[in-house]
Amino acid sequence: MVAVIGMTRRFHAVETTSVPSDMKREFKVGNRTRNLEDLLLGAIDETLRHVFADVGAKVIYNHIENKYHLKKEEIAKKPETFSIGLEKLLSSAAPVIEKMILKNLYSRLELKFAEKKDYEFSDYIKELRKRFEG
User: Is 42 a domain residue?
Assistant: First the structure.
């Protein structure tokens, strides 16, 4: 429990980072789906490396690729599979990591993350896709 509290406190610095203005412009003007995927992959990678260091992040990516046939660059297209793999590997810590990833992603999009009842990781991603595709 202490480790989770420590992770949450460390994550706060990641949550408050701002997106460079050129990145924002690219996201708003360019191909939104592709850039949303890039932002999601960046948020996942940064969060996993922040919590588990490089070696731990590689172990997670390898586990998900080997057990679920999901390559790192495909995670944004299949967030449900990523979530299942994370849960099988990390058990009860998976929702904490997913929430950290979501906070990081929302921060990159300059949005405030708000938890929603009965929402899973993939539900937030689907909602963001709908919001920024149209």
Answer: yes
